[in-house]
UniProtKB/TrEMBL annotation:
The keyword Nucleotide-binding does not apply. Coiled coil: none annotated. Residues 343-448, 570-662 form the PpiC domain. The keyword Repeat does not apply. It is a single-pass type II membrane protein. Keywords: Cell inner membrane, Cell membrane, Chaperone, Isomerase, Membrane, Rotamase, Transmembrane, Transmembrane helix. One of its GO terms (cellular component) is plasma membrane. It comes from Chryseobacterium lacus. SUPFAM superfamilies: FKBP-like, Triger factor/SurA peptide-binding domain-like. It is found in: Cell inner membrane. This is Periplasmic chaperone PpiD. One of its GO terms (molecular function) is peptidyl-prolyl cis-trans isomerase activity.
Length: 714
């Protein structure tokens, strides 16, 4: 009855529970998740301002494009993109707090200072003026072109530029207020010029630990971490044990590839006579196309552009001679010398008549009109070469008149338009003609030619050294046997068995959800392995088997634990902090031994630890003593009275006991004005990153990516 009475009192609660249960029954799991879980399109918040999946993806796209342009891999950039989004939001918030706004006028007024535009000379005219109106027109034309993909790409790029502009304006405004006081400069000059002459004894940590080994426990590491909570603040991560089974070619695989490439070299007789081979072929480019894993390259290459293995050989080789097979990393190569000749350098000048739609063009004339102008100019110049200078006034190339239309000296390996280069290479000095390129119509005049370094035209037969099906099967067998052996075992069992079997073992101690790559592994499968590790069902001791498509490699992984947000797991940072903690523990033992041995003087300390007394000079601004930077020792040297023995000083490399003999002043060059300017410059250069870190440390940053990432756009 008492229970019924309580229920009657709280009937509203009962009704709510029944309604919730009915709702759960009627909804599908996906619908239920959408109602009660976080919005999958919002990846996080910075001081309440959202970071959407779309803008994060745009930032990631920009980074991937930059990496691609620089020849760098476009993977593993997810965490960098997140950090940039967080910092961009913080900068934007501070920018707006200062009363500033990112308007169209502000954007275009600052565009010429952004590195993307400032470093491209084509954005400036011959007088150095920024071509702002032309750039605005290009953006407007792009917007009206109907090419949504290209326009959206520009808008993503513009967003990244806007954040850079806000950061530059914000830091410029704040650093203007950074000053250095006279007292500060005077104090630093004093610290620079004052010297303390000391006698001291150093008990070196390394020497002490050799005789008195210390084991650093997990508790020791944890105690150290607690002293520096901001330094060792950790985001969620997982600890993974990884065994990598590379599918490498065996000796038999290499022998088979060698036999195959030798057969291409010498050929075999068949029923119709001698088969075509690399020696007797009459069409080298076709033979390469049919038999090599790399395409034929018709260019003449300089010695420095050739593989190191053949650089000396080509100098004395005759046409048709073959070198190899030789090994270059993971391929076998046959190389035939087809031709060699000096690589001419050509000096030329030109008049460019561009048209609407040609590359980098701002011209509005049609192609037919451009061709007509070019032909007319050529006819005049052909009859009177001196008219070339007058024709330059019509050139669409910036600064054409000032440079006399010259493009300088070029060689066959110069990055140049193919049509322009073809004319230079195939015509003699003095030749003039009209040539069409991607940039428009050129009236080109070859001013001079001179022989350069030798160029070599080569044909290569390349065969990769890859694992055979039999070898890959053996790799798969070993990996599957290993994962069966470690089922239900501990991480230590996993690691010990891998090492005992001479397998490639690594321990990635702090893998974040969006690292993209696993330290010590680095395969295309890394992202999938990380996703597996962050599955909600994943628990310590779970193992999994992965196949790396394309390479045939196998990976076996064990989950060794999860790090929640908070202080770092001591074992995950052991390699980083163990030397520091070990030195601290050693210092404690050294000082205890001094006290118990009643060693109060330098001679007593030296005798107790089997070391010697030394002398030296130290100052506060550059506290170097005994080959190490020791600020605490410098502080003690100026803090102790003359002739007195200091207390033991726990330094960076050892425990010191010292006696100050005297203080002197060694006046260094530079007055207070120079010191003030130097300090202000240093402070300004360090301010940006320090300010940004301060904003980030004190911001309310919420990261929902682990919870919502796999749900995708909704």
């Amino acid at each position: 009855m008492a229970v019924l009475a309580e229920i009657r009192k709280r009937s509203w609660l009962l009704i709510g529970l029944i309604a919730f249960a009915l709702l759960a029954f009627l909804l599908t799991p996906d619908q239920f998740d959408q109602i009660f879980s976080k919005n999958p399109n919002i990846l996080g918040k910075v001081n309440g301002e959202t970071i959407t999946r779309e803008e994060y993806s745009d930032q990631l796209y920009v980074l991937q494009q930059q990496a691609q342009q620089q020849g760098q891999p476009g993977t593993g950039l997810e965490e960098q993109a997140w950090q940039m989004m967080v910092q961009s939001k913080l900068i934007k918030q501070q920018f707006e707090k200062m009363g500033l706004q990112m308007t169209d006028d502000f954007f275009y007024s600052q565009l010429q200072f952004d590195p993307m535009f400032a470093q491209n000379q084509q954005n400036f005219d011959e007088k150095g003026n920024f071509r702002l109106q032309e750039i605005k027109k290009q953006v407007a034309d792009l917007q009206n072109s109907g090419d949504l993909q290209a326009y959206n790409q520009w808008m993503k790029t513009r967003k990244a530029i806007e954040y850079r502009m806000m950061a530059r304006q914000l830091f410029a405004n704040i650093t203007t207020g950074i000053t250095t006081g006279k007292k500060e400069a005077e104090e630093l000059m004093k610290q620079r010029d004052q010297l303390a002459d000391i006698d001291f004894v150093k008990v070196d940590y390394g020497t002490f630990l050799q005789k008195n080994p210390i084991k650093v426990t997990t508790a020791d590491l944890a105690n150290y971490i607690k002293q520096y909570p901001l330094t060792y603040k950790a985001d969620p991560s997982v600890n993974l044990g990884v065994v990598y089974f590379p599918s490498m070619p065996s000796k038999a695989d290499e022998d088979a590839t060698m036999k195959e490439i030798n057969n291409l070299l010498s050929g075999q007789s068949d029923a119709s006579g001698v088969a075509e081979n690399f020696q007797n072929t009459t069409n080298d480019s076709m033979f390469v196309m049919l038999n090599s894993e790399l395409p034929f390259d018709s260019r003449y290459l300089s010695e420095n552009q050739l593989p190191p293995a053949i650089r000396e050989w080509v100098k004395t080789a005759s046409k048709g001679q073959i070198n190899g097979p030789y090994r270059e990393q993971d391929v076998l190569v046959l190389t035939k010398l087809l031709d060699k000749k000096p690589s001419d350098s050509v000096l030329s000048k030109h008049i460019l008549i561009a048209y609407e739609g040609s590359e980098r063009s701002t011209a509005t004339r049609k192609k037919e009109e451009a061709k007509k102008i070019a032909d007319s100019l050529y006819a005049v110049i052909k009859g009177n070469p001196a008219a070339f200078a007058e024709g330059l006034k019509l050139s669409d190339e910036p600064n054409a008149v000032e440079r006399n239309g010259s493009v300088g000296w070029v060689t066959p390996s110069s990055p140049f338009d193919p049509a322009y280069m073809k004319f230079l290479l195939n015509n003699p000095k003095g030749a003039t003609n009209v040539v069409e390129s991607a940039f428009g119509y050129h009236i080109i005049n070859i001013e001079d030619k001179k022989s350069g370094t030798m160029g070599y035209k080569l044909a290569h037969i390349v065969k990769g050294l890859t694992a055979s099906d039999a070898t890959e099967t053996e790799v798969d067998k070993n990996a599957r046997r290993f994962i069966q052996q470690v089922q239900g075992k501990t991480f230590n069992d996993f690691a010990n068995l891998a090492k005992k079997s001479n397998y490639n073992f690594s321990n990635a101690k702090s893998v974040k959800r969006f690292d993209g790559q696993i330290q010590g592994l680095g395969t295309p499968k890394d992202s999938e392995i990380i996703s597996w590790a962050y599955d909600k069902k994943r628990k310590k001791g779970d193992t999994e088997f992965f196949v790396v498509e394309g390479s045939g490699d196998r990976v076996v992984v064990i989950m060794n634990g999860k790090q929640e947000k908070g202080l770092a797991d001591p074992e995950s940072v052991r390699e980083q902090i163990e030397p520091i903690v070990k030195n601290q523990l050693a210092a404690k033992k050294i000082i205890e031994k001094m006290k118990s041995g009643n060693a109060t003087g330098l001679a007593q300390v030296a005798k107790l630890f089997g070391t010697t007394q030394q002398s030296g000079q130290v100052n506060l601004l550059n506290p170097q003593i005994a080959g190490a930077m020791e600020p605490k020792v410098a502080g003690a040297a100026f803090g102790v009275a003359k002739g007195k023995t200091s207390n033991p000083v726990e330094g960076a490399t050892g425990v010191y006991v010292l006696v100050k003999k005297s203080e002197t002043v060694n006046k260094q060059p530079g007055d207070i004005k120079q010191m003030t300017e130097s300090i202000s410059g240093q402070n300004a250069s360090m301010f940006g990153q320090a300010f940004l870190k301060s904003l980030q440390d004190n911001a309310d940053i919420k990261d929902y990516r682990i919870e919502v990432w796999d749900k995708g756009f909704q």
